Amino acid sequence: MKPIMLAIPLLLLATTVQARGLKSEIDAANQKFGAAYDKGDAAAIARLYTPHAQVFPPGADIATGRDAIQKTWAGIIQSGLKITGLQTVSVEQYGSAAREIGRFTGEAPDAQKQMVKLEGKYVVIWKREHGTWMLDSDIWNLNH
User: Fold this and answer.
1) Backbone phi and psi for residue 10, each to the nearest 5 degrees, phi listed first
2) SS3 assignment, position 83
3) pLDDT for the residue numbered 60
4) Which of 106, 109, 113, 110 is CA-nearest to residue 142?
């Protein structure tokens, strides 16, 4: 077999292994996010973001920096929204950045305090800082 013919399968294998590792790391970070959310710990959520990260919540302005992100998530938690599921649809790496596309489900109280099921989608830009993948840009919205 010619060296170039051998190099192509090895490159594809390395890329596949790298993609699996990236998805595993992002899945682990998402689990930390979910655990902090379930505890109502907006400060722990904010620490999962880079220091100058931005979130783009539906119906609200951009929140920049961990303090603003903490306040945003504290308000969401206090609203009674329950996140019931996060599903990563795809992850792509671009050097020290990555893009995650996903879906979420949840429940939130309506005006009559009845819990209503929600479905939505999100895009997160992750940055690798000091060996750790951290959220840097986070946008989400509802399907209806």
Assistant:
1) -65, -40
2) strand
3) 94
4) 106
Tokens of 107: 């429940």
pTM, 2 dp: 0.84
CB 11 within 8 A of CB 17: no
- The token pair at 123 is 């895009």
67 in Cβ contact with 107 (< 8 Å): no
Neighbours of 122 (CB within 10 A): 17
CATH entry, 3-142, from 3.40.50.2000, 3.20.20.140, 2.60.40.10, 3.10.450.50: 3.10.450.50
Residue type, 118: L
Phi, psi dihedral angles at 112 (to 5 degrees)? -95, 10
pLDDT digits (tens, 9 = 90+) for 82-101: 999 999 999 999 999 999 99
Calpha distance 112→110 (Å, rounded):
5
- Chunked mean pLDDT (size 10), the chain, 144 residues: 50 45 93 96 98 96 98 97 94 97 95 94 97 97 92
- In angstroms, what CA-CA distances link 134 with 9, 58, 86, 90, 128? 31, 21, 17, 17, 6
